[in-house]
Description:
By secondary structure, the chain is an alpha/beta fold. It has six helices and ten strands, in the order E-E-E-H-H-E-H-E-E-H-E-H-E-H-E-E.
Amino acid sequence: MKPIVSCPLCLSSGVSEYHVDDVRCYLLCGTCALVFVSPEYHLSRGDEKARYELHENSPLDKRYRMFLSRLFDPMLERVPAGGHGLDFGAGPGPTLSVMFQEAGYEMSIYDPFFAPDPTVWDRTYDFITATEVLEHLYRPGYELDRLWSHLRTDGFLGVMTQLVIDRDRFTKWHYTSDPTHVCFFSPETLEWLSASLNAHMTLFPETGVCLFHKRK
């Protein structure tokens, strides 16, 4: 008998099969609508890092900067000038943090593989960003709660990830072909998360950008 699998976001055990491809089985949470891969399909830490080391992102890449501007621009409109931000999951070539520094912000970065600095958790931040990160998280509930607890009141958590639209599109979705992608958020999942955090949410569904405002 297979062990009972609970949702890694809301911890509900009310999950059902969503889709099966040639490699993995995807489950759907009936509470928060997260689609996720069962832990038995997770890569080892070494294999996961090896995949990330293939990334060639760089602050010198204008196309990558344009891609990140999907989150950078709406955040820049909202965060206070000169604030201190945290870029979570910065990867091997931190770039969004450089863009904010160029705009006059103080930045810290954290990545469990490439910048595992525990001192970033010793303070709070005016804003936190996580671009193309949510889909990689084995424990999204834990990580998002941790980020929220290190965000100051009136601050913003900005995330960017491709969104689940419906089951038919999911079965043909290129996003699932990356073995490091294990959690797939839909607009309904983000709505659930916003309510859980008691946040005000602004969603840009065409870019997969979502801003959570920590209300006073």
